Amino acid sequence: MTWYPTNADDVTLIVSEVSRNEDGSRAGSTEIANTSAITVDDFTIGTEEDMTALSGIGNANPLGISQGDIEHSFDFTVQGEDATVFNNLAEDDSGRAKELEIIARAEDYKAKLVGAYAGTREFSGSSGDPVEYSVEGIATGRDDGTV
Predict the structure, then answer these.
(1) Class in CATH terms, 8-49+63-145
(2) Domain boundaries in the chain?
(3) Which tens digit of pLDDT belongs to each residue from 79-135?
(4) Of 69, 109, 90, which Cα lies nearest the Cα of 15?
């Protein structure tokens, strides 16, 4: 019988730092976070495509759809002491975003973002709650499929 995940606890989120050769080609990746070992409070992986309905004078219904740019995005929040680990995840020595690869894997499904950069990085805390480190950004590609 097929099992379908119904809870975020059934998903593993894996974040890796991408390394490149001097010529810019991909040399590999180093896993820096895996939710089986760290606490992630929430995550989102999304894709948005700009679309516009084409109608005009004398056409109440659209005659077609204009497809525009595609944007892949992500955000997640790490809690507790694991937040300090993520402080080094998203930026290099100059404070610029590092290239990441992000995979969210369920039993039979995975969403993979490549060329991901965490443009927003926020460290926060409230009295009585664990500290949090939130990252969000965009990616150049997305590959969904079966595991």
Answers:
(1) mainly beta
(2) 8-49+63-145
(3) 877 665 666 666 777 888 889 999 888 878 889 999 999 888 888 888 988 888 888
(4) 90
